[in-house]
Amino acid sequence: MKRLFISLFILLFFNFLLFFSNVSGQTNITKDSLQNKLAGLKEDTRVNELIAGIWKGDQELLTVALGESMTSVPANIDMHLRIGGVSEIFLGTLLMILAEQGKINLDDKISKWLPDFLAADKVTIGMLIKNTAGYKDYVVNKDFINLVLKEPFRNFSREEIFAYSVNDGELNFPPGTDQKYSHTEFTILGEVLEKATGKTMSELYSENIFSPLKLEHTGYSINPGLPAPVLHAFSSDRGIYEDATFWNPSWTGDSGPLYSTLSDLGKWARVFGKGDLLTPAYFDSLVSRPVSATRPDLYFASGFIVANGWYAQNPSFNGYSGAFGYLPSKDLTVIIYTTESDDPKSGAQAFNIFKEMVKMITPETTINF
């Protein structure tokens, strides 16, 4: 019995080493080395808290929480957090699901639902998710930003958001001729999907993604509430270092309304990245390069970046900074979120940490921007 136990231990240990070797072609990457690297990067970037997960296939390599959620309250991997722009990956996938179900057509003009909207007879649904419609991004409007900072708990309707983009009657470029990132276009898409289906975005996400995948800790929220336990975020955007956890996320429209946990995001990354919820044709549409994008190795697809083979996002808002990456060629997922400390250097550091971890794990497939 003892010999059998020793044999099983040796076999499991060998498989453990082989597993890490298969990730990067190296044999010196262990769970401890990954955690030590993250701890060093946390120290270097001065972030208040760092939460990270790394998976190969459906096998967890590491999940870790470093730092404090609040003073004397350690962060942990089960805490809920606002995922910001990673919401756009869910939105792109949801759109393709609805198109596959025949509830919407990517080539339909948005004038079908928004007849009086600027350039509605020239903009298609497919343009919105690819950010090729030409609508100005309301988030770069100084008056809008000043209002958000002045009233961080204020609720913003879609109509208010649209006004900051289209009231001057101008576009960035004629629809379909170029590409420019625009929170406006994701929010227009949310309005169109609700009108086309007769259901709220919350219902659409729940019925088509959250419930089927049993993402029990992921949800849609355009109010300050978050389910407990909560990973607290902090911000100096208003000139003083303060808790920003419950600032109203409604200003993000449909580009950042979702919250989740590390484990749910790890599960989601692989389902999304493998196209498990879509037929091959619609998955190809999801990850396809817009005609206006000139580089095949770096472009914005449908709510996410394709960078040297990675499907990635790098949100930063209301004190949260995130990095989400799935590498289909190696079935590898890396997710990192950080929160700011009172050190100005600590803002928006998650993606920098992500890139350093990618260099360590898979040096032959690094992030190329």
Which descriptor suits the 3D outline? globular
Low-pLDDT runs:
1-21
Strand content: 15-25%
Mean pLDDT across the residues is 93
Measured as a percent range, the helix fraction is 25-40%
CATH topology description? Beta-lactamase
**What oligomeric arrangement do these chains adopt?**
single chain
End-to-end separation: 54 Å
CATH class: Alpha Beta
Give me the CATH superfamily: DD-peptidase/beta-lactamase superfamily
CATH architecture: 3-Layer(aba) Sandwich
Estimated structural class: alpha+beta
Tally of individual helices: 11
Task: Please provide a brief summary of the model.
This protein has 369 residues and is of the alpha+beta class. It has helices spanning 2-24, 31-45, 87-100, 125-130, 142-150, 158-166, 183-197, 201-213, 262-274, 280-287, 350-361, and strands spanning 49-56, 59-70, 73-74, 81-82, 219-220, 234-235, 242-243, 258-260, 298-300, 305-307, 310-313, 316-317, 320-327, 332-339.
Observed structural traits:
Beta-lactamase, alpha+beta, disordered N terminus, 369 residues, 3-stranded antiparallel beta sheet
